[in-house]
Design a protein that fits this description.
Aspartate Aminotransferase, domain 1, Aromatic_deC, PyrdxlP-dep_Trfase_major, pyridoxal phosphate binding, decarboxylase, aromatic-L-amino-acid decarboxylase activity
């Protein structure tokens, strides 16, 4: 069935109208930051079963459905959204999603999307230059978990080049701090190393790698007859937003011939901020880096970069044969560098954000969010009952209030849609966790959050 172009244009106009109103209301805090209606109740309200069974939706039906749909869920543009590390998408990235939804060019094979692939090449060149990889290579993939897995595949290919055909050598281990993102342990399991092959690095009380203890860990590993496949550092840690000492760790890895992987999914965007790029000093020493655009580069989910210092290392990560895909000159194909073959036009989202805001504008956004989190720390630490285990380095900050059940505080704030927070454990102790993502979050929002917590729970 071919498109009814007139109907498409009408429905597209409805979409723009409803989304514009949704974002406007969200930015101004005119609705609850989240709603969590039970799934069965929500399915009935949206009449999902009827629409699936009968079809026949018109643009006007769609308007009513979309309005109801948008009223539920979580409003990331809302000033009180202080929850997960999901980007508050900028509108150019949303336009890119719209374009891809219509054109659907799965551009991992160049002939399926020349423009999309070319845009990705240029975006990757920009990211490689920011990291400091002059002779590097890269690929965009659907999320940080796949990006970390791809980085680990490149490390495995460098350390055990026959592993793709012969299987993973039993003596390989992965060195990572307990604060590493769960996708690192998952990657070890997927690769066949197993969870027990992840050797936890010694850390300080806030979960940062203790560089002085690295020689002892390495000696213990080698004495047991095992080989490090890679060492993983955080920039920044998902739970706390704190950065490892990337230069010191990189120098240790270089001296000892260890593949150095930096998980910069959230924090690598600080490279764009003059006042914060020092947090990533030494990232250029890494062998591989991941950098999520769907966090601090304000693209919609998902768009994550895998960057390597030496381009051939990424080409060695995968080996594949398929006569229906691989023939002739594959020089411009990206499929040999990624898990996915049908890959969305991810680079377009990053490119359009940059094309609208510029590198400087993106850096100003990162700086503002980092500074707003620091402002929250300044405001709250002067109030009785609020305790902070550290001064924030990024837009993530953890805290406790009094002796109350911290999970109960979070649930109370979320129950009526007033604020959306998360939580994390530090040293085995549960803390509340604020992640400043929305540009609309300001001092008034932060003061309001503190005012809501204080009377509800005794310190």
């Amino acid at each position: 069935m071919t498109w009814d172009v007139k109907e498409f244009a009408e429905a597209a106009e409805v979409t723009v109208d409803e989304l514009a109103a949704y974002v406007d209301q969200s930015q101004r805090g005119m609705a609850p930051v989240l709603r969590r209606r039970p799934p069965r109740e929500l399915a009935d309200k949206l009449e999902l079963a009827r629409w699936i069974r009968e079809g026949g939706m018109t643009p006007e039906d769609y308007r009513r459905f979309l309005g109801d749909y948008l009223r539920e869920g979580t409003r990331l543009h809302h000033p009180a959204y202080l929850g997960h590390q999901s980007a508050v998408p900028d509108f150019p990235a949303a336009l890119a999603d719209f374009v891809h939804g219509a054109t659907n060019n799965p551009m991992a094979i160049y002939e399926m999307g020349a423009s999309a692939a070319t845009v990705e090449f240029e975006v990757l060149r920009w990211m490689l230059a920011k990291v400091g990889f002059r002779d590097g290579g890269g690929v965009l993939t659907h999320g940080g978990s796949l990006a970390n897995l791809t980085g680990m595949l490149a490390a495995r290919a460098a350390v055990a080049p026959d592993a793709w055909a012969d299987g993973v050598p039993a003596d390989l281990v992965l060195l990572a701090p307990p604060s590493a993102h769960y996708s690192i342990t998952r990657a070890a399991a997927i690769l066949g190393l197993g969870e027990r092959a992840v050797v936890p690095l010694e850390v300080d009380g806030l979960g940062r790698i203790d560089v002085t203890r690295l020689p002892a860990v390495l000696e213990q590993v080698r004495r047991s007859g095992r080989r490090p496949m890679a060492l993983v550092a955080g920039a920044c840690a998902t739970g706390t937003g704190l950065y490892d000492d990337l230069r010191a760790i990189g120098e240790f890895c270089a001296e000892n011939g260890i593949w150095y992987h930096v998980d910069g999914a959230h924090g690598a965007s600080a490279l764009l901020s003059d006042g914060h790029r020092h947090l990533l000093d030494g990232i250029e020493l890494a062998d591989s880096v991941i950098w999520d655009a769907h966090k601090m580069l304000r693209t919609s989910s998902l768009a994550a970069a895998v960057l390597v210092r030496r381009e051939p290392d990424l080409d060695a990560a995968f080996q594949q044969q398929a006569s229906y895909l691989f023939y002739g000159d594959q020089g411009f194909d990206l499929v040999g560098r990624a898990v996915e073959c049908t890959k969305a036009e991810l680079g377009l989202k990053i490119f359009l954000n940059l094309a609208w805001r510029g590198e400087r504008g993106m850096g100003e956004y990162v700086a503002r969010q980092y500074e707003t989190a620091h402002r929250f720390w300044e405001l709250a630490r002067n109030r009785p009952g609020f305790v902070f285990p550290y001064e924030p380095e990024s837009n993530i900050v953890c805290f406790r209030y009094g002796t109350a059940d911290q999970a109960a505080i979070r649930e109370r704030l979320m129950a009526d849609g007033t604020f959306h927070l998360t939580s994390a454990e530090i040293g085995g102790v549960r803390h509340l966790r604020v992640t400043v993502m929305a540009p609309a979050t300001d001092d008034q929002t932060l003061e309001s959050l503190l005012d809501h917590i204080t009377p509800l729970f005794s310190a």
